[in-house]
Automatic annotation (TrEMBL):
Domain Methyltransferase: 70-160
Pfam families (alphabetical): Methyltransf_25
Identification of the protein by name: MET27 protein
Amino acid sequence: GTGMGLPAAVRDRVAAVHRSSTLSERLRLYDSWAARYEQDVAVLEYRAPHLAAASLAFAFPAPRAGARLLDVACGTGLVAWELHRRGFRCLHGVDGSAGMLERARSTGLYQELRLCVLGREPLPAPAEHYDAVTVVGALGEGQVPSTVLPELLRVTKPGGFLCLTTRSNPSNLRYKAELEAALGQLERSRAWQKLLAQEVEYWERATSEEESARGTGYISGVVYIYQKCPVPHLEEG
């Protein structure tokens, strides 16, 4: 049976990535998934790129065209499409998968794309370089560790924005708790301030009954928006 009404092949590809035990194994799976990735996530009704870009655009002060953005774990460029639609034009991307980066390059949406395995190596960017940093879909069990938050902050300008997402499905709850502890610790140490933590019920279609929220056939997720301190004061006009 195709449980949850999803094609078995799509379910298997998603399951393989989430099951993979090592990072290098996972990156190999992403390389081979790149060609089918966008079709698969469309079937999954994956809404994170849209939700994250909409939230960031809402928080971000105009003008957007000249703002420099780093799309971390950019994949095939789904987040870039959504940001571009909302007027962001200066987009840089990093990903751990060469196959994904090749797809991202073909969109023509990025000014710069670099291979970088986050959690293993620093971001290929100087300190305080970006007006905003996004990590959509990669903060999860067995993917990017929550210990990367200071590195994301390092490359963000003071007053700049960070847009992060994670899933709230059962197999990611331990990771989510760790992530939220790390987010809170950085907030208490005044490294950034929280602008938004939006729980979204229909994040994407579940690939198994166990992961589904209350039998809806979907899993839920969260969008977080933070602003790096010190936040610039508005000039008295």
